[in-house]
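User: For my dataset I need records formatted as: sequence, then structure tokens, nothing else. Please produce one.
Assistant:
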Amino acid sequence: MRSAGLIGLLIALAVVALAIRSAPPAGDPRQEILRLVNAERQKAGSPPLHLSPELTRAAQTHAAEVAARGSLKLRAGSTEEMRERLKQAGYQAHAWTESLAATSGDPATLLRDFRQNDPESYRKLLSPEYMDLGIGLDRMDGTPLYAFLFAVPQEGYFARRTAGLHDLAQVRAAMLARVNAARKGWAYPLRANPKLDLAAQRHAEDMLARHYFAHESPEGKTVRERARTAGYDWRVIGENIAEGQFSVDEVMDTWMQSPPHRRNILDRDFKELGVGLALGKSDGGWRVVWVQTFGWDGQPYKPKPGPQ
């Protein structure tokens, strides 16, 4: 049985109708808008935004659609439409915010009115979580039209969330401690076993590399074969897997709330533990894959003295 924690997609949409000014901007104002936005972000302590070609393509498509329709109002289904635009443009967003503006003012006036008329979206524009910007340009009823997209790229979000998972030895030690804390008063503590670590790690990496999530590999191999291939001659063997959690505590909470996984963690027949963790890009997405391999090889087991 599998345990999955899904990374949620956060979407915020906002529309701003700014006051129409007198003279249209000269040339392509994207770089000047970017410069002004980044100056404001610097004051707020945020890193500069990057003008993304992919986001700009999506924003340009949206600007053309809005101009043809002649209205700044978002239509029903606009979220799904933008998601498809981002996909077509090749941009993977964890979160995005969209704003529309129609104004003949210069970039400084554009941003000033943006701040005054939609402070919530403007606050997001300055947030350090947002890293990329796209700007679409068109005209609506003769007035310059701007479509802004600022986004949290999935890759950047994933890197931040998994920053604490790159020391595998530390992750394994934390997992063993958390498992044994759960077993306290119920079963003897488990001890780490490098052969079970190897079996668990190979399975985690295989699921990531070959884009599947299951106890059984595409060839039909299970934890039984994986453990023996790693050199572990087991008498009893078991496995937990999970996907999407960003910490030991998060994945343990997920397992402990699932009766089959909880039974493995607390099973008195198991004496040893292996831990596998694989993270990275897989089949167009970003994944964190966890494996616990439990076993006992029949050898005498002498737990450390102390209260259990």
